[in-house]
Amino acid sequence: EVQVLESGGGLVQPGGSLRLSCAASGFTFNIYGMSWVRQAPGKGLEWVSGISDSGASTYYADSVKGRFTISRDNSKNTLYLQMNSLRAEDTALYYCAKAGNAYYFDYWGQGTLVTVSS
Amino acid sequence: DIQMTQSPSSLSASVGDRVTITCRASQGISNYLAWYQQKPGKVPKLLIYAASTLQSGVPSRFSGSESGTDFTLTISSLQPEDVATYYCQKYNSAPPWTFGQGTKVEIK
After folding, report:
1. Cβ contacts (< 8 Å) between B32 and chain A: which residues?
2. Cβ of A45 and B102 within 8 Å?
3. Residues whose CB falls within 8 Å of the CB of residue B71, separated by 6 or more in sequence, listed in order
4. Do B89 and A104 count as a contact with CB atoms less than 8 A apart?
């Protein structure tokens, strides 16, 4: 059974940093792209960042470019999102999502909540 | 960047009604379009990818179609368990892989 489980969310002050993790199981992790998608309270889905199967290629939404860094450790079946210079508008539920054979998302985690507030 | 415009933003229909949701891309994206269902308080679920391919396990009352840059999600006979917000997403080769604004479907 495919599972992706996020962790690392929490309350952080504006300007602070946080690192999210996503532990994957039930599929061959190193042959699929992965992404982070967020959802602010009461709002729609926003794609944040993506990474290729090998980790060689990374992609970012303009709203987080230069502040967030996506990475993966295929030996640990784990995806990461390093978030720096956090802003109030980054407050959201952050989902880890497995890509299918292209960058649509066939499995999603339950999400980890990030709250940026003083 | 390619924009995805989804309509309507909300709709109310009766059980058994045929429901149609539209997503328009500002430029061509071939058939790189997916549809998701998000029930209240739940995780998004993939319904359709490649514009019209039904994800395994999704009921056959859901279908997708494309006409140029216009994409349509159809629920042939609305059921109470279909109450949800539906999102389109484009995933052609160039990111960002943008989602539409969402369509909230309710039962009348």
Report:
1. 102, 104
2. yes
3. B22, B23, B24, B25, B33, B51, B64, B65, B88
4. yes
- Residue B102's identity, in one-letter code, is G
Contacts of A104 in chain B (CB under 8 A): 32, 34, 46, 49, 89, 91
Residues A52, A53, A54, A58, Cα dihedral to 10°: 10
Q: Is A89 helix (H, G, I), strand (E, B) or coil?
A: helix
Per-position b or e across A65-102, b if 16+ CB within 10 A of its CB: eeebbbebeeeebbbbbebeebeeebbbbbbbbbbbee
Tens-of-pLDDT digits for all 108 residues of chain B? Answer: 899 999 999 999 999 999 999 999 999 999 999 999 999 999 999 999 999 999 999 999 999 999 999 999 999 999 999 999 999 999 987 788 999 999 999 999
